[in-house]
Design a protein that fits this description.
This protein is an alpha+beta fold and about 220 residues long. The chain is about 20% helix and about 35% strand. The chain folds into 2 domains: about 180 residues, Electron Transport, Fmn-binding Protein, Chain A (Pnp Oxidase, Chain A); about 30 residues, no CATH class. The longest helix has 15 residues. It is globular and about 65 Å long. The chain binds flavin-adenine dinucleotide (FAD).
Amino acid sequence: MSDAVLGPGPHTRVRRLPEKARYDEDTVNAILDEARYCTVAGVVDGLAMALPTLHAREGRTLFLHGSQSNALMKSILSARRAAVSATIYDGLRLARSGFESSIAYRSVVVVGAVHLVDEQAEKARILELFIDAVLPGRAREVRPMSSQEQRLTMVIALTIEEASAKVSGGPTEDSNEDQDLDIWSGVVPARLVFDEPTPSRDGAMASGTIEVPQSVRRLLGGAS
Ligand SMILES: Cc1cc2nc3c(=O)[nH]c(=O)nc-3n(C[C@H](O)[C@H](O)[C@H](O)COP(=O)(O)OP(=O)(O)OC[C@H]3O[C@@H](n4cnc5c(N)ncnc54)[C@H](O)[C@@H]3O)c2cc1C
């Protein structure tokens, strides 16, 4: 737990429904770490462009990666700054009216300076961080990345300078007059669930003797 706050900053003051805003670093980090992917925004060929992509956080640095030819990544590098958002979908908030109905969510917007990570050892370390961000423990189960694979991959570090979080949840908020209507209202929580894995059937996996690794068993709740 820290007392640090990351906003509001010049780009991250929540104006609409400010009662849902959070700026403390713990909330921002928790959302970034739980979100399975983020959306990076930038300008490509004069158009505001947004792309979903994976991220990995370390302290106040958010790492992004992609192909060396990724136009959006190149554009944020030349702009030297970027905005990234990430969202966790927590369910439906079904009011008696469509107007008051909404979803439960936790989301963040982070803004910061970006730079290319090109030092080889640091790049290799961050790429491992990515593998574990997607599935904790997986980095030590896969073969090491080749230098060619590393060369093909661009790694970008975004230093979080300011951030906002918005947390929407709790019961629905119908107006007083709507509350007497004979219409069902309530909250339907949602969460991400991983189902039973489907093993590959090619190569060495065709033998059927390679066991489900610890990382996947842990994901499914079967290993510590
Ligand atoms: C999954 C999802 C679905 C949504 N669907 C809708 C929808 O259908 N219609 C709609 O109007 N709104 C929707 N929202 C809310 C939306 O993200 C904005 O908060 C809202 O539209 C207000 O935008 P604004 O530019 O007027 O906000 P402002 O408050 O003026 O935005 C100013 C600053 O506040 C911060 N901010 C704004 N929104 C967020 C956020 N969600 N998370 C973190 N920081 C934020 C940013 O730093 C932003 O620069 C949705 C949010 C989520 C997570």
